[in-house]
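Our collaborator T.R. sent over the components below with a one-line note: 'Predict the complex.' Nothing else. No constraints on interfaces, no templates requested, no preferences about which chain binds where. So this is a plain run: every listed entity goes in together, and whatever single assembly comes back becomes the starting point for the next discussion.
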Amino acid sequence: MKEHSWLFTKKRGEHRTDSQLVGLTAELVFSAVCILAGALGLIWLGWFYVIPEWKIHSRYEETECVLADFRISPRTVLGDRPVVKEPVDAPSIFEDESSFHAETSENAEKKETGPVLGLPFKEIYYLPEMQLKYFADGAERTVWTPVFDSVTRFSKFSTEKSAEEFLGKWKIGETHTCLTDPEDPDQVVFIPDWQWENFLALIIPGSLVFIGIGIGIHALTAPRYSVSKERNALHGVFRPQQERERSPSGEFPNVPDIREIIDSPGIQLAYRLPVLDSPAWALFIQTFVALLWGTGCIGFLVLTAFNFREDGAWLQLCYLMPFLAVGVWLVGHTYIQLRNATCVGSTLLEIEKFPIFPGRPVRLFLSQGGSKKLAWINVVLVCEEEVVFTHGTNTRREKQRVYQRLIFGEEAASAAHGTAFDAEFLLEIPAEAMHSFVSAHNQVCWRVIVQGKLDRLPMFERSFPIIVYPAREEEK
Amino acid sequence: MICSIIQFDQKPDVFQPLETVSGTFRLEDVELESVNRLEFSVVWYTEGKGDEDIGVHFFETLDWTNGLLGAVSANDAHPAPRNSVCRIPDGDEKGETFSFSVTLPSSPLSYYGMILKIHWCVRVRIFLKNGREVKSEKFFTVGSVPKVQVDLN
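Returned assembly:
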């Protein structure tokens, strides 16, 4: 057996730590990392977005302003910081690369340009600016300001042309609403199209904090002892709804519900068995696809024929040929399938009684319809193990036939043309055989399979499920 | 080594559906005071190529709160009443002993197929106060389905 590490063990795709202490520590560390990352994100967003927005909207006053003039200011960035930087009165609102302070006409000339401290320029961008005229604190004011997307971010462009196009949305002399600081009337913010979507960014760090808190609470409050498989199974963790619904009487747990196959009365015997994997639906879909494809091909063929008469559309015709070939094959194949299905006719299998117990024979009645003479017909009793397993991320199904016995067979069956072939015979499950069994991933299935061949047609096979109950001791 | 020794009253360990499985289990090398709880169950589970399924026919938790780990009462004796587990007076000084008695269901029967097997067992899990968990189990057969020999005649 493969040795696992002392920390992790793996069984059927489930990982777990062998040490509860290590597991708890890992959960708490993960929780702390989530909370820390989320908290840092919230602080950052709060400092740079939420608090400035809150300050602006709670402290600033709405004022009517007139657009007096436009200009485009080229700006240079040295490293991460703009070279041109004004003295700051309210550092908590406008800071760093995105900070820009509305400048008055008096200090507009104070700007420096060119290298600072001998460092080279790294980036140039163009800032559309507006000159706003408004009344505040009893006096008319004229202020140059950039156009803001939000409180903390102004519009800037990499080319002068795009900045000009941006400013083209407004005209000189228009009146708009802007926000001014009552304590410093020269501070003005013009946000023509405020974008609340910026606040959606809060969801990400907020989610991290919630997830971290949830994991932490779970880690600290979950039972310290492990939960056994039996306890989980008892509470239905391993039992899908489908399984719980079977065998409603509870008399035979994990034996499939017999009601699924006794809902149809027979003519000769008590019950008519349902057919498994009936080809009717597959044939219906195939017919539908063939008709659709064929109709489409005919339509395109007519269209191509018209084009061909006018301008000799050889290329179009060449493109159509493969589709026509597929259409002809599909229609032909579907026709053969339909002909076979209608020629073979229906297979009826009726059973004398249910439930079936091993060692107790029951009568079966077979009626095979068809428009041609039967070459041979066999009835086979089979038992198969059927399992479902996960392989990596795939779910696979596998069958293993463990029992097969011919219970009826006839060659050159005497059914005349156009009449059904009828036969009655006994079915007996071996006395020590396993009963039908079903669980979430495993089954033992018993089936009666009718195989036959009609003249000039391929072999056909129909499968009928039966449910075998556990043998009673007195029957053996 | 900490474990529990499970013994059936009947030998061989083959039972028929609806029969009663009775026996005892004894805790080895462990003081009852160091046990947080015990879980006793009678289960079947599948083995083979398919994913494992488990069916719990009988399940009982024995801990200090429900009194099943506590003192032995005068009524507690072996065999235990049907479908129950109880602590019984020590037959010897080796360890605490418990008696169980569980009536089996009609199905599923034990099965030893090609890609599917169905096992029945009595399982005891000891959860110690220090967080350790020890599992012991004893298998038995339900029904008399022989081991599958593929027959495709």
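Summary for T.R.: The beta strands of chain B are 3-8, 14-15, 20-28, 35-48, 54-63, 84-88, 97-103, 111-112, 116-128, 133-142.
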